[in-house]
Design goal:
It is a single chain. By secondary structure, this protein is α/β, with parallel strands linked by helices. It has two domains: 7-223, Alpha-Beta Barrel (TIM Barrel); 243-314, Four Helix Bundle (Hemerythrin (Met), subunit A), CATH 1.20.120. It has helices at 7-14, 29-34, 37-41, 59-72, 86-90, 101-114, 132-145, 176-185, 200-206, 217-221, 229-234, 243-259, 264-268, 281-291, 299-307; strands spanning 22-23, 27-28, 50-55, 76-81, 119-124, 150-154, 191-194, 212-214. Strand 3 (50-55), helix 4 (59-72) and strand 4 (76-81) form a beta-alpha-beta unit.
């Protein structure tokens, strides 16, 4: 979710669910250690619980970056061993590390020594010609032995040779049963499933076999789904009853960010799917696209866009 789940996106999503854990976009250890930490790591207090996702392979750097993240207040440190992009692979992190389970375990052990918050790993079921039955088991057992507190498993292979990152999100076939078998083999380890899960109904079905479900593109592209998370999965009322209420609650945050010099489009770009299927949704998107990118665009642009949406947006759409 690089370039997607930034702090503006996470504040927006938190207004729809109190209970779901939010994850940052993946940040490299080099960026965390040497970059502008406040810009990269700063987040709004409303985002809790929120996890920092790291990309890296050097155990010492991972430990330092993890400690920096803990000091910033993150509730979890997650090591990404699943991203298939060429840039990530060239940096020796992401999915290519599925081929180096011992190194991943060393990184986990180093982070565990450095922080008190949970350390988790996000991975694929395998890469390229690996046998997922062997590769996932070896990686999982290695990181658990090193102290990993949970595993998030994207239930498809990553083909690093021959497929683009975009193709790797769709072409390799999903194998949710492989993740179920991992949970059966490691009953005491929290296992979260990810990949191809497009509805809360599907999430509930997976929860019969694993401990948690991670939504990526479905939550980002159709954020209205999040309005039903707390009621459908946790038996609690949602923070807000409808998307228009969410935007009303979001306005003070947007006004503060604009006053700090943030451009409106940097925030509203995360709102494109907010009113999917509602009369006026296309006009909402068009207005934000045409007016929201202007240098002097203010919060009134968003208010005008919302006014174009019909009243059917008063309640969440069934997920």
């Amino acid at each position: 979710m690089m370039d997607w789940t930034d702090r503006h996106c996470r504040v927006f999503h938190r207004l729809m669910t109190r209970r779901a854990r939010l994850y940052t976009e993946m940040l490299t250890t080099g960026a965390v250690i040497h970059g502008d930490r406040q810009r990269l790591l700063g987040f709004d207090a409303s985002e809790h619980p929120v996890a920092l996702q790291l990309g890296g392979s050097d155990p010492c750097d991972l430990a330092v970056a993890a400690k920096i993240g803990e000091d910033f207040g993150y509730d979890e440190i997650n090591l990404n061993v699943g991203c298939p992009s060429d840039r990530v692979r060239d940096g020796r992190f992401g999915a290519c590390l599925m081929a180096e389970p011992r190194l991943v375990a060393e990184g986990v052990a180093a982070m565990k020594r450095a922080v008190r918050v949970p350390v988790t790993v996000k991975c694929r079921i395998g890469i390229d010609d690996q046998d997922p039955e062997v590769a996932l088991d070896v990686l999982a057992r290695s990181v658990v032995a090193a102290g990993a507190d949970a595993l998030v498993v994207h239930a498809r292979k990553a083909w690093l040779n021959g497929l683009s990152p975009k193709e790797n999100r769709d072409i390799p076939p999903l194998d949710h049963d492989r993740v179920y078998r991992l949970k059966a083999a490691l009953p005491d380890v929290p296992i979260i499933i990810n990949g191809g899960i497009a509805s809360l109904e599907a999430a509930r079905a997976h929860l019969a076999h694993v401990d948690g479900v991670m939504l990526g593109r479905a939550a980002y592209q159709d954020p209205w789904r999040l309005l039903a998370v707390d009621s459908e999965l946790f038996g609690e009322s949602a923070p807000h009853a409808a998307m228009k209420d969410v935007f009303a609650a979001m306005m003070p945050y947007i006004e503060r960010e604009l006053a700090r010099g943030v451009r409106l489009h940097s925030i509203t770009r995360h709102f494109v799917g907010a009113f999917h299927g509602v009369p006026g949704a296309r006009a909402f998107r068009r207005h934000l696209a045409e007016e929201g990118g202007k240098p002097d665009a203010g919060v009134n642009v968003l208010r005008e866009a919302i006014a174009l949406v019909g009243d059917r947006a008063a309640a969440p759409i069934a997920a």
